[in-house]
Amino acid sequence: MSKKQGSGVKGHGLENPYLPPPASHARPLMLQGTASHVGKSILVAALCRIFKEQGLKVAPFKAQNMALNSFVTKDGGEIGRAQAFQAEAAGIEPTVDMNPILLKPTSDMGSQVIIHGKVYGNMKAAEYHKFKKEAAQYVLESYRRLAEENDVIMIEGAGSPAEINLRENDIANMGLAEMVGAPVILIGDIDRGGVFASLVGTMELLSSSERKRLKGFIINKFRGDFELLKPGIDFLQHKTGLPVFGVVPYLKDISLPDEDGVVLEQGQGSRVKGQGKINIAVIKLPRISNFTDFDPFKFEPDVYVRYISQAAELDEADAIIIPGSKNTLEDMRWLRKSGLADAVIHYAKDGGSVIGICGGFQMLGRIVKDPHGVESHCKETKGLGLLDVATILEREKRTYQVGATIPPFPPLANGGRGDCLVKGYEIHMGETIGKNKPFATIAKRNGISVRVEDGAVSKDGRIWGTYIHGIFDNDEFRAEFLNEVRIAKGLPEQGIIPFKDTKDKQMDILADAIKESVDVQRLYGIMGVKGLPTNILASPHRLT
């Protein structure tokens, strides 16, 4: 770059954080992106799997994650769902240290701030921006603990490092990279267009010290003839003086979890193979959370999942699911305003099956109250009235990993075949009571034996709700639920498709694709990992 180009932009202001840089044998590598949804989460997961296969102990790390898809760890801490998936790829148990700060938006201007798995408070955007300097301490505490126990820390950035308005006190991108001494690879998404402009433009907006930390690029989601891309690669490398470590193809046949709602806005949330003989309509709430609850349906060949936002889209649905919500009262008001509330009630009265998960379960009841203003300025709102239950939102959030038993009554799992055992997790601030039979009985919370009734179910079993996220991850339950729908439609029953094993095979396919398209050996080099593996696959697309 010319001197003008290298003059730099004001840095992040955390060159001297409260804690000194972590001292550890662990080697960090950070993936940052030119924007959100360029593939950072999936690429981090793939590299976690690759490093694990090479005999290294690797852990994922995302200092600050803004997401409504979350997961509960074994000790009851709440983290981003993407970090839980990355930990699964690395073959280790998810912990709160993998995502020390989770931001769950409650409105366009504010978020619930979760630190080390527990609610810290609600903050407006400007308030949190000032808080980040203090938050750096929590981030480094978590990083230190991970660095003491692992060989490699795979760090995922957040959004773009070139957001000028967010640079001060940055703890998510280059500020974090400098705090922990991580080399950075910048990811660009060629499928959305303008990849070379976005890569060069992002680098142009970095400070001089940050550019020194940037070691090269990976181009993601490429389709077409690789030879036609070479002039662009040559330009990028000449312009920046940095290598392109690889070009990852557009992997359209791989189904893995999506981190955020962007995928729903782009109409990709129903990426399910098959003929769509079973049609499931999921209400796309404005503040939808944990839509990864429905990922298991991706692997059912005859199931088609649609995320809908208009009453007319309910036509031909075999079941309607109201998902989780970060703001139940406001989303319930949206349901009524959009006409969907009346449409769902009419659908249920005509004999249709309606299911609610967490916030969706609360909406199925008579009323939801928020006396403490936990989620909204609205103190209460009328629900759909499909279940005879009422919900009061409390100040304290409940987060548990759970084991539960579902009794044998149709059209739920195991109609007449005995109790069904399920696992999942709870994330809610509501207490729901009523006159309907419980959907399930929770026997364990965070490993401790309990006996707690969960959810509710109508007398005919067509309407039911539960607080258990991940309910459809349970193969036996999912198979029985879908088979009841198949039987009602005159379709043959299907056997169990093991979700965890199928997802794991998809992860292996992804890892193999990354090994063939990215120069993993050179990544080891910039990380300074000793005893480099020699059995990385050679590739015609690997760039030297």
Physical arrangement of strands within the biggest beta sheet: 2-9-1-10-11-12
* Rg over C-alpha atoms, rounded to the nearest angstrom: 24 Å
CATH homologous superfamily identity of the largest domain = P-loop containing nucleotide triphosphate hydrolases
* Named CATH topology of the largest domain: Rossmann fold
CATH architecture of the largest domain: 3-Layer(aba) Sandwich
The overall pLDDT average reads: 89
Distance between the termini: 21 Å
Estimated share of beta-strand residues: 25-35%
Portion of residues within helices: 25-40%
Write down how many β-strands occur, each being a DSSP E stretch of 2 or more residues. 26
Number of domains: 2
Q: Which runs of at least 5 residues are low in confidence (pLDDT < 50)? A: 1-8, 15-22, 266-274, 534-544
Shape type? globular
Content-based structural category: alpha/beta
Biggest β-sheet: count, sense, barrel?
A: 6 strands, parallel
Name of the CATH first level of the largest domain: Alpha Beta
Number of helices: 14
Describe this protein with a few key phrases.
single chain, alpha/beta, Rossmann fold, 6-stranded mixed sheet, 14 helices, 26 strands, 27% strand, disordered C terminus
